[in-house]
Write a structure and sequence with these properties.
- The complex is a heterodimer of chains A (304) and B (383).
- By secondary structure, chain A is of the alpha+beta class.
- Chain A folds into three domains: 83 residues, Butyryl-Coa Dehydrogenase, subunit A, domain 1 (Orthogonal Bundle); 62 residues, no CATH class; 136 residues, Butyryl-CoA Dehydrogenase, subunit A, domain 3, CATH 1.20.140.10.
- Helix content of chain A is 49%, strand content 12%.
- In chain A, α4 runs antiparallel to α5 and α5 runs antiparallel to α6.
- Chain A is globular and about 60 Å long.
- The two termini of chain A are 13 Å apart.
- A four-stranded mixed sheet of chain B has the order 1-4-5-8.
- In chain B, a hairpin with a 2-residue loop joins β2 and β3.
- In chain B, α1 runs parallel beside α3 and α7 runs parallel beside α9.
- The relative contact order of chain B is 0.10.
- Chain B has three domains: 112 residues, Orthogonal Bundle (Butyryl-Coa Dehydrogenase, subunit A, domain 1); 109 residues, Butyryl-CoA Dehydrogenase, subunit A, domain 2, CATH 2.40.110; 133 residues, Up-down Bundle (Butyryl-CoA Dehydrogenase, subunit A, domain 3).
- The mean pLDDT of chain B is 94.
- Chain B is α+β, with helices and mostly antiparallel strands and 383 residues long.
- The chains are: A alpha+beta (304), B alpha+beta (383).
- Chains A and B meet through α5, β9, α6, α7 and α9 of A and α3, α7, α8, α9 and α11 of B.
- Bound molecules: flavin-adenine dinucleotide.
- Flavin-adenine dinucleotide binds next to β1 and β3 of chain B.
């Protein structure tokens, strides 16, 4: 048992973090460079867990989840999640967007320049063809291009049994990243913004909001690590642990997203500042591989 | 990162499980400290004789010198076997002993540590005072140096198990006129000394587990000072580190078991059909899983770096609040049967009421949030 990242994982993480800071600053989240996706592919980040035979890195879900939390902290393109799942479980090697089936319409997320998109149909993960000639707008998460298509496009199920859990795990990692981002933005601001002749972080009313943000992140991160290891080890309770990770990460992202805006005061309400970005990302991720109460209550758990 | 245990560790787990299965007492531990003291001592002695006390304590002082992972496995199995709460041995085993291991002289260690492990010596903690709870540096109880003795005057409060204790980890001001963190000393006080008066205090759950202690010219040999005269703040911080750091391992499994029982009960009485209750229970199950993961992560950190990460306060805060949510759910599922509670009953209501201590004792939830904000996030110090 060892739930801390190994030296290699640490090194991968540091390299990713350095790269993200330069290539994906939060300030530019709404207008990413046109060739960002090519850069992500060149870095190998779309195929961390994909088999080496398919041009992937063939690493464990644990490493991928760690790195995805870091990518999520920089509000990386949402299609990284779907592309990683598709590349792990099919022989499709290019970008894959995400689909969300809703009442009346199917929403396509970040599927520009993608031939297919990944979604869930009748409880199974499937890929769908992306029709040509779509009109693209922007989702509530302004980093995400959005288009609508008519209900039930053609699709083919992914047979790999772990694909649904893989999707949920990576969405959890992205949500944790959003929660981390909100915590860091709030803590950084609390150190520099002054009122009553002191940094606002001196006041416990603010300090304790930030402390609670840190607790939510620590809880969600621990469970993410455990869930990723359970999925790698193929334990019988892996589905429960992945669902628990998603649930805690979603809640952390949403609660931290809200708290971050409060800590920023008036400027937190402005479109121009960035405090709303992790909150909006949190709302979007809440619809991707969501967890219901019964997902967590029904499975019988093995005694640890 | 991996979650498996080695075959040696799995074997150790089997041994723990087998022994506990055969030896956990069938009778319930009495709830009140006075009634429970014989039970607590006898159970600790049984653990010691079978080699289960001080699993990762040094062999020289009666421990087994095994790994921290084995200690964790033991505590997990202990909780799973519904073994009795450590009770009056809590202070000695969980923080008095570890503080001595880290700071005491060889003589002090050789005398006290085996007695703690054998359940022969009950310890209590004399930190808080009527005017100094959260503000530990505000203590006023004095120890005047006279020859080779300290003469102690003042009062301590909320001292758990004071009225059944033999020894006390006592923090006093030994430098006249000193203030705040300076001039304090951490001393071993014999609770049977002349000049000590103990007034038990009843809790909202009915038990008299803690007390106020008065010191009237109590004489303590200078040889009982731990870590050097005037170094009491440093030694106290190490005590609090142990106090805040160890309890959660057993709680984590206890919480997991309780949540499973609550889910069963909510299904049986139909309350699971209430969406809010189902949602709260689902959330608790996820949180209990995360708590285990957090504990493992912290242990991994200790093994890797030799010390727990700055997230110990996170675990402490999260565990205490999660435990309280679980206890609250248990009384919610009871419905109006809750109002039948009368002092002294050993049931969910008593646990719920006792559970208020979790976010007060050993540093309140507010103090933990300060620590997290300042040490983990680097926010400016408020105090
Ligand atoms: C069951 C139980 C057992 C205990 N056992 C022991 C024991 O064995 N030995 C021992 O020495 N002590 C013991 N204690 C005492 C415990 O450590 C103190 O109760 C605790 O540190 C709080 O101090 P206080 O009670 O004086 O509350 P106060 O410090 O008066 O706190 C009152 C309220 O004010 C808040 N507060 C205080 N200061 C601040 C601040 N700076 N910022 C924000 N909020 C603040 C607190 O969080 C709390 O909500 C025990 C307590 C309990 C409940």
């Amino acid at each position: 048992m060892d739930l801390t990242p190994s030296a290699e994982q640490e090194a991968f993480l540091t390299a990713t973090s350095d790269w993200c800071r330069d290539a994906m600053p939060i300030e530019a989240a709404r207008a990413r460079p046109a060739n960002l996706w090519q850069q992500l592919e060149a870095m190998g980040l779309t195929g961390i867990s994909a088999p080496e035979a398919q041009g992937g890195m063939g690493l464990e879900f644990g490493t991928e989840a760690l790195v995805f939390a870091e990518l999520g902290r920089h509000l990386a393109p949402i299609a990284l999640i779907s592309t990683a799942v598709v590349r792990h479980s099919t022989d499709h090697a290019a970008k894959a967007g995400l689909t969300l089936a809703g009442a009346g319409a199917v929403r396509l997320l970040d599927a520009r320049d993608a031939g297919i998109a990944l979604g869930v149909r009748d409880g199974r993960v499937a890929t769908f063809d992306v029709p040509a000639g779509l009109t693209w707008g922007v989702a509530i998460d302004q980093t995400v291009p959005l288009a609508r298509v008519a209900p039930s496009p053609d699709g083919s199920d992914i047979s790999a049994p772990r694909a649904a859990l893989h999707l949920q795990l990576l969405a959890a990692a992205f949500a944790l990243g959003a929660a981390d981002l909100a915590r860091d933005m709030a803590a950084d601001y609390a150190k520099v913004r002054e009122q009553f002749d002191r940094p606002i972080g001196w006041f416990q009313a603010i300090k304790h909001i930030c402390a609670d943000m840190a607790v939510r992140c620590a809880v969600a991160r621990s469970q993410l690590y455990y869930a990723a290891c359970a999925l790698d080890a193929g334990t019988g309770d892996a589905a429960f642990h992945v669902a628990a990770a998603k649930r805690l990460a979603d809640r952390a992202a949403l609660d931290n997203g809200r708290a971050n805006i409060q800590v920023h005061g008036g400027i937190g309400m402005t479109d121009e500042a960035y405090a709303h970005l992790p909150l909006k990302r949190a709302h979007l991720l809440g619809f991707i591989a969501p967890v219901s109460s019964s997902d967590l209550l029904t499975p019988e758990l093995e005694p640890a | 990162m991996e979650i498996g245990f080695s075959s040696e560790e799995r074997q150790f787990r089997e041994q723990c499980r087998d022994w506990l299965h055969a030896n956990v007492p069938a009778e319930r531990r009495p709830m009140d400290a006075i009634d429970a003291i014989d039970f607590d001592k006898a159970w600790q002695r049984t653990l010691f004789d079978a080699g289960w006390a001080g699993i990762n304590w040094p062999v020289d002082y009666g421990g087994r010198g095994l790994s921290i992972v084995q200690q964790v496995i033991w505590l997990e199995e202990y909780a799973r076997a519904h073994a009795p709460w450590i009770g009056a041995n809590f202070v000695g085993v969980n923080h008095g002993g570890p503080t001595l291991i880290a700071n005491a002289t060889d003589e002090q260690k050789a005398y006290h540590l085996p007695r703690i492990l054998k359940g022969e010596a009950i310890w209590c903690q004399g930190f808080s005072e009527p005017g100094a709870g959260s503000d530990l540096a505000g203590i006023r109880t004095t120890g005047r140096v006279e020859g080779d003795e300290l003469v102690v005057n003042g009062s301590k409060i909320w001292t758990s198990f004071a009225h059944v204790a033999d020894w006390q980890e006592l923090v006093i001001r030994t430098e006249p006129g000193s203030s705040r963190h300076k001039g304090l000393s951490w001393v071993i006080c014999d609770m049977h000394s002349p000049g000590i008066t103990i007034r038990p205090i009843r809790k909202i759950s009915g038990q008299t587990e803690f007390a106020q202690v008065f010191y009237d010219d109590v004489r303590i040999p200078l040889a009982n000072v731990v870590g050097g005269l005037g170094n009491g703040w440093r030694v106290s911080m190490s005590t609090l580190g142990f106090e805040r750091g160890t309890g959660f391992i057993a709680d984590q499994v206890k919480n997991a078991i309780e949540v499973e029982e609550l889910i069963g009960r909510a299904r049986a009485n139909g309350m699971i059909r209430d969406d809010r209750i189902a949602d709260d229970l689902a959330q608790m199950r996820a949180e209990v899983a995360a708590l285990r993961a957090m504990t493992y992560r912290n242990i991994s950190e200790v093994i890797r770096t030799g010390q727990p990460g700055p997230e110990s306060s996170v675990i402490r805060l999260f565990t205490s609040e999660l435990g309280q949510r679980i206890e609250r759910m248990a009384v919610t599922l009871m419905g109006e049967a809750m109002i039948d509670f009368a002092y002294g009953d050993d049931d969910a209501v008593a646990d719920y009421l006792r559970g208020f201590a979790a976010t007060i004792a050993g540093g309140t939830a507010q103090i933990q949030r300060d620590i997290i904000g300042e040490r983990l996030l680097g926010l400016p110090k408020s105090r």
